[in-house]
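Page 42, continued from yesterday. The earlier attempt failed because a stray header line got pasted into the input along with the sequence. Redoing it now with the clean sequence only.
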Amino acid sequence: MNKKQIVIIGGGLQGLATANALIERGEEILLLERESDVATSTSFANAGMMTPSQSSPWNSPADIAQILAGIGKVDSPMLLKLNQIPSLFFWGLKFLRNSTPKRFNEISRNLFALANYSKELTVQFRNENNVTYDESEKGTLKIYRNPESMQKSINQHEKIFSNLDAVKIIKNKDLVDLEPQLKDIQSELSGGLLFSNDEVGDAYEFCKILEEKIRKNGGRILTNTKINKILINKGHVKGIVTDRAILETERLIICSGSWSRELLKQVGLNLPVRPVKGYSLTFDTTGLNNVPNISLVDESIHTAVTSFQNRIRVAGTAEFAGYDDSIHPKRIDYLYRMLESIYPSLYGQLEENEGKVWHGFRPMSADGLPFIGGTKIEGLFVNCGQGHLGWTLAMGSASLLADQVQYKDSKIDISPYLASRSM
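This time it went through. Structure tokens are written below.
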């Protein structure tokens, strides 16, 4: 095997975007995925929103209060299972240390910078390759059910985000003109914010486009491949042991989402990332009436409703439950109730058993920022921890990682995201 070949572990959004970025720069790539196909886990059926507007970590005082209120409550928007508290203790302390107003605002600005950079690269990729993935450039609409919450959000955006040209305040009387399907609940709403720079797209379809491009350009992708061990000698990467073979490499990139932490523990590195389970329901809307035309976030119930061409997807909830794959019926019932509370007329046309249920484990870092770049082990790199912004940050994170691998300067300041801050 060619030792100069870069091995990437993980075939989700981050791994595929990283492989593509490096191939475009002339590198030889081998990508390994443990599942039978790429992008079948966390990247498969996420909300599909590419939202620089939502570039804030989940450790605001309101979020923390909701997490604590949801301890042991399976019908809560944010559930913290009691048996997970011990394993989250030290991670949780870091999480809380980064929740001060100063750190929250600083982290939000850093996420916003990376999100905008990433969105630009995604649009550039789409245009240069003439591809489509059920995308929409209509933006996202965030609705509010009380004026205080709306004003607080406006103040936060003015304080944190520099580019307010793409934010439009929508008064209650104008909401139905923008989204007619809100007419059923107009009396309950105070107004909304339209973020015209946001986009929507099917992350899984985008991953399959990346896969095809990687293979076409000479990259290799092996599925059904389990990683048993990372080989280190005198502080340098030397290879990996899979369930198929021993592979030599001097450059290894971990893009395995929440499972990255388990791989890095083998070599004595502590990645402060924990899995946070999210759910979605997807319905076929072909032939239905009252279908919304713009994607929406309901601030009060932490729910996103994404409108694709012939589908609608409702996503939400955050579950601190480790790697528990079980799906409690109350978590799914919650999504049905939230969809009904936003679009009752559409809900009335849907058959509940027709909704396609999905769940995935978001890799959430303790400070809300991704880990990108080299570690203290020579040749070992990481691209992980994008959390709820995995789709939004994917192409930008991949570009920054490629810069690090090739020792090149980046177009944006990479220092806030460097993996070396913890490893």
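Notes: The CA atoms of residues 90 and 272 lie 9 Å apart.
Reminder to self: strip header lines before submitting.
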